[in-house]
Amino acid sequence: MEERMDEQGRRGSVITVFSTASAVGKTLVAINMAAELARLGFRVCLVDVDLQFGDVCNYLHLVPERTIADAQRAAETNADYFDVMQFLDVYQCDAISFSVMAAPLRLDEAYNMSGMSVQHILQQLQFHFDFVVVDTTSAFSETNLMIMDMSTIITFLGIVDFIPTIKNMKIGSDTIRSLGYESSKIRLVLNRSNSKTKIDLEDVEHILGEPFYHILSNDFSAAWDATMAGVPLVRSANTALARDLRALVARLTNLEVEEQADADSGVSSWFKRIFN
Asked: What is the pLDDT of residue 154?
């Protein structure tokens, strides 16, 4: 999955977190994916493309100096001297550090953002980071479709609570697959898996036509505490949800495969990384 631009011409990977419903934990998952990738030593940028009502900075207790709207204006004013790195804030929590590009602060700025501008900004970020994690709106907008096209992985997040939510998840899943992406690009992730519901998980997977790629535990208390404190859950692995989020990132980056191979060969993962 390494696509960061280097002397061989590779670019950083884009991981997009998308859903067809609101209030499913999309921003929480995006933040923790970025934090976990940073904890593992990758250069990471988290981009809030919920242009009207983005909450990434609120979750992280960041007060952004510049936003993606400022980046768009700068790129349009003087493209030859546009430096995307000037429009980032840095989030720091203990040893975890990653960059953040904030959503616009005003609604009129959001309305003036174009899909092409967002795509250009993300492409510029790929030159500087190993991973660009994108938090999106819950809609098949022009901007979101452009982001999906350029994504390495689309993490399609859903919950199993009400029939309308499952219906929207089915429509969203079918729509994404109708776009012609390779099946490996789309990862269906279930959030709040053990929430109190009479809907059977196997029935939902039958409706969707595939099993969930990964399942996240339901832990509202841990998620709430982390959000109120402005810290990622993956900062420590003392809750089931934090461990599930860590495991999701390990799967997406194939680290669990590497670690198992190291264990089978008797070589520890950290030892291998130092001497490779």
From this structure: 95
Cα–Cα distance, 99 to 45 (Å, whole number)? 5
Question: For residues 246 and 79, which has the higher predicted lDDT (pLDDT)?
Answer: 246
**Cα–Cα distance between 207 and 193 in angstroms, integer?**
17
pTM of the model as a whole = 0.86
Query: How does 160-197 read in b/e, with b if 16+ C-beta sit within 10 Å?
Result: bbeeebbebbbebbeebeeeeeeeeebbbbbbbbeeee
Gap between the Cα atoms of 39 and 47, Å rounded? 17
> Under CATH, which architecture does the 13-275 domain have?
3-Layer(aba) Sandwich (3.40)
Task: Specify whether the CB–CB gap between 9 and 143 falls below 8 A.
Answer: no
| The total number of residues written for the chain in this structure | 276
What are the φ/ψ torsions at residue 48 (nearest 5 degrees)? -95, 105
Q: Which two tokens stand for residue 97?
A: 């550090």
Percent helix / strand / coil, the chain, rounded to 5: 50, 15, 35
For the stretch 94-138, pLDDT in tens is 999 999 999 999 999 999 999 999 999 999 999 999 999 999 998
Please give the Cα distance from 92 to 148 (Å, whole number).
Answer: 28
Per-residue tokens: 101: 């590009």
